[in-house]
Amino acid sequence: MDVKINYVAVAVAALAMWILGAVWYNVFSAPWMMYTGVTEEMAKNMSGMDSALIYGGSVVAFFITFYVQCHVHHAFQVKDLKGAAQAAFWNWLGFVAMVVYVNNSYQGKSFLLTLIDSGYWLIGMIIGGIILVKMQKKETVSN
Which phi and psi angles does 4 have, rounded to 5°? Predict the structure, then answer.
């Protein structure tokens, strides 16, 4: 499969996901902390290396997510915003929401935590998918 990857678009989508996470988890910080058991003290006691690994690792994970999303767009010939949103939704439902639900269920976590975490991924994947399509169109038009 010859997939042309716009690495700048993938990086922009990953950065957008990271920024959304900063906003999302700021808004939902109190219930998220309550449902996960993470305390303010635990967050403050993280070392700089721990923070770098968590935040840096997240950006790498988001980059991989949208790199894979490019392959999905190619396989299903996604060329418009509706297609990008649909691809993001189905990938989210099958590969994110269900994984988060199963993991949280077995860990005895609240279903509200599942809604917080999977809701973030749904919105982020849709935004990222739209970025991939919009930036791909720009690249295609300029060639």
Answer: -90, 115
Rg of the chain taking only CA atoms, in angstroms:
17
What pLDDT is stored for residue 71 in this prediction? 96
Helix, strand or coil, per DSSP, at residue 23: helix
Range 60-84 average pLDDT: 97
- As a whole number of Å, the end-to-end CA separation of the chain is 21
CA distances 49 to 18, 25, 52, 53, 122, Å, are 18, 21, 5, 6, 29
Say what the pTM is. 0.90
**Which pLDDT tens digit goes with each residue over 95-121?**
999 999 999 999 999 999 999 999 999
What is the distance, to the nearest Å, from the Cα of residue 125 to the centroid of all Cα atoms in its chain? Answer: 5
What are the structure tokens assigned to 124, written together? 């982020």
Phi, psi of 107 (to 5 degrees): -90, 0
Positions of E strands within 46-139? none
